[in-house]
Write a structure and sequence with these properties.
This protein is of the alpha/beta class and 172 residues long. The protein has one domain (4-168): Rossmann fold (3-Layer(aba) Sandwich), CATH 3.40.50.150. 19% of the residues lie in helices and 22% in strands. It is built from four helices and six strands, in the order ααββαββαββ. A six-stranded mixed beta sheet has the order 3-2-1-4-5-6. Strand 2 (74-79), helix 3 (82-86) and strand 3 form a beta-alpha-beta unit. The longest helix is centred in the N-terminal third of the chain and has 14 residues, at 35-48. It is globular, with a radius of gyration of 15 Å. The relative contact order is 0.21.
Amino acid sequence: MAEDSEFPLSFFDRQDEEDDAQFYAQPRFVVHIDAPTIAALTQAYRELLPPGGKILDLMSSWVSHLPDDMTFARVAGLGMNELELERNPQLTEYIVQDLNRQPELPFAPARFDAVVNAVSLQYLTRPMDRLGSARRLIGGSFVFFREHESDVSNHPAVAYRGPVLILQVGPA
């Protein structure tokens, strides 16, 4: 996996470099994708995630879009707003953490079957480093989903193209 240092210094610059803690201080109980997109994402999770598995919802909020008809042994959410995480009925646990300030994930290696991220990866200023940190946690898949439209002021200059990125990986 590439490291952020392999890219030009400005590659992940954002238009708005203000502290993310200010942006996420107030809860936002909105969905950032439309109903058909949510249905497609939930179906992708249904097909890709292991029933009874241990899932890390990276950069989670008040909704995870996991299928209601599937049961998971563990769904840990890591996000920026405690009130949003607290109200997410699919999470079995959560941690409030800003990955742009604290990049290392606070979990022991090989603790999850999959890492999911819906419409949030583009907010990371050092995404490759964060993905490397996430890789050590799993023996399964990353499933990343990017919305088709969004406010891009605090996205890196280069963002992911296309809606779904699925990386099948083994343990680091």
